[in-house]
Amino acid sequence: MGYTAKIGVLCLGRYTYDVAASREIYKKAQEDLKTIPGVDWEIFEEPVIEKPDAEAAARRLKGADVDAVAIISGTFHLGHLALIIDRALKKPVLLWAFNELPYDGGKIRLNSVCGMNLNASNLYKSGNDSFVCTVSDTIDRTWVDAVRMKAAIEHAHIGVAGYRADGFFNLDIDELENFRKTGVLLDHYELADMFSAPVSEEAAHRREQEVRSRFSCGGVTDEQVRKVARLCESTQTFLDKNRLDALAIRCWPEYANSYGIAPCAMMSLLQADGRILSCEGDAEGAETMLACAAAGCETPFLADLSQVNFDENYALMWHCGVAPVNLWDGCCDCTLDTYFAGGRGVTAGFVMKSGPVSFIRIDTARGKTRVFITKGTAEPMEKQLAGTYAKVRFDYPVRDLIGRVTETGVAHHIVMCYGEFTDVYRTFAKIMGWGIIEP
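Now predict its structure.
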C-alpha cells in the first residue's frame, strides 16, 4: 500500500577497481528492487563509468520524469558523475554504497564507501543538503517511503471547501509559498459544492444501511442518519468529479446551518474508505495526512493533543468525532452523537484501537516549514466522553512533549498513524529540506 513513485537507479564504477564483482552485486540488488511494491523503477543495468555515460543517464532520467534517484557507488569512481546527475535532475538523491568485499591479497576491491563519501562531500559543498546515505547491498526502504511521501504531495490535487475554521489563524497558510515548497496548488470550493451533487435513492439507501451497520444510531434521528448517508454519496461524487486527492473542510460554524448536520460522521466513514479529509479547513493537515497515506499508513487521524495527565504520563488524542471508523477499538459502543451545534453535530463516537502510533505534522511558521515528529502507544480505555479519541503514552514525558509543541508554535492538529513511521518521517523532512521538531 502507498503512493507509487518513479525512482531511477544507476551504478557508478571505475575499471581500476573490481567492476565485475560490483556488477554481480548490482544484479542481485536489481532483483531485490523489483520485489518492492509501489515503485516504478527506471534502472540502468550497466555501470556508469565516464562523464558521457552520466550525461546520457541524466537525459534518460529527466525524460522519464523520475521522482528521485538512487546513485550507487558500485566501486570508487569519478567525482563528476553524481554531480552531473544532480545538476540535471534536482531530485532527492540516495547515495548508496555496497558493503566491501573480502580482501583477496591485492588492493581494496570496491572502495564503494569512499566513493559515496566523495559524492556526499561534493553534493554538500555544492549546496545540496537533502541527500541521504546508506551502506548496504539492498536499498534503504525508509528512503523509498520518504520519496513516496514527497511525490504524493508534489503531484497532489488538494481542495479547500470554505476556509479555515473561525479563529484558527494558526492553520492559515501562504498558498504560493506552500506551492513553492511542495508543488501543491490549492483549489477552493464552496461548502454547498460538497452536498449539492444529486444522489440516487438507491445509493442513498445503500449508504444508509452501511451507516446503521457501523454505528449505534439511537442518539440521532432517522432524518439525521439519512443526511449522513446522502452527504457521504454527494461528497464522494464531488471528490471524484474534481479529482481531489485530499480535501480540507470548514466544518464549522456554518456547515450545520447550511446542510442541517455537521460533516463529522461522513468524514469518519469516507476516511475509512481511504479518502483524505481534514477538518476545520486545515490545508497543511490535509497535506500531512496525504503524505502519511503515501508512506503506507492505512487511515491517518487528524487529532488534537487534548487532555494531559502529568501524573500518569499520558495524553488524550481527541477530536470531535471524525476519526476513521475502521480505527474503532471493537469494544466500546460505536455511536452517532449530537452533542454540539445545537444537536446537529452528528459526530462519530468511539475509543480508538490500541497499538504503537506515530505522529507527524507539517507546519509552517515565520516563513519556515518544520516537521513535528514523535511516537507512543495507544492504550485501552473505557469510553468516557463524546468524540473519537485514544489514550496515548508517549516515548517521552508528556510534560516535555507539551512544552516542545507550545514553545515552537506547532499547530494544534497533529496526524496520528498506527505503526512505526518516525524514521520515514525524519527522512522525509530531510529530503524536503525542512527542519525537524522532536521532544
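The domain at 154-437 is CATH 3.20.14 (L-fucose Isomerase; Chain A, domain 3).
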